[in-house]
Amino acid sequence: MKLATFNANSIRVRQGAIVSWLKTQNPDILCIQETKVQDHQFPREPFEAAGYHIAFRGMKSYNGVAILSRVKPESVTFGLGDLPESDEPRLAMARFKQFSVVNTYIPQGYLIESPKFAYKLDWFKRLKAYFKKNFLPSDPLFWCGDMNVAPRDIDVHHPENHLMHVCFHEDAKKAYADTLSWGFEDVFLKLYPGKQQFTFWDYRFRPNGKSSLEANLGWRIDHILATSELAKQCVKVEVDTEPRKLPQASDHTFLWAEFKI
Questions:
Q1: CA 149 to CA 175: how far, in whole Å?
Q2: Model confidence, pTM
């Protein structure tokens, strides 16, 4: 079973690149974040034509999540369920026969001193409560998406320069680690514990006139996590950097993992 995650940074702009990637890589499930489109404007036809069922929840200009799957989910829900529907464009959960998948777009946080960073930290607490309420650590469960946290020094270029960044601040890393402690393993770390591999390269950062991608100065903030028994069945994890080189590319790229299920 091949599971992938991708922050599209606008599904309508990237739909061609996504369909092309689906046709060449043939994942069983693709989780997408930052679709940035209202539900009635979601471009579902190209994905259905490629052979995928689609579950999505979005809003105008911001956020938005989608799960594409070869097999139709048995059920789909959106949001953390503890507040009104405003959180629904940040979390999608699909139950399949053998496992469930939670796809999240974690709040970025803006600035350390802003209310948005406090909201991010609280969101992780609420997410852990969501897992406790709806699952057991022994359940076959995947959690993937754009977590907006680089958990280790090796997961960001020049870590000494980013200690006060909302995606690398100690409080953000602790909040993320605490949510993982419910019962998840990072499958990339499980297979390649010493490897540096980024999933996001900032458009705006151009060191010495090069793009951040050319200089390979990025962040690993997109993750695929699994509960223990599923993590044991992970046989391969890869970041496909080629889509990031395309014209009008997202600032993220595809991360995928294979499991013997």
A1: 9
A2: 0.98
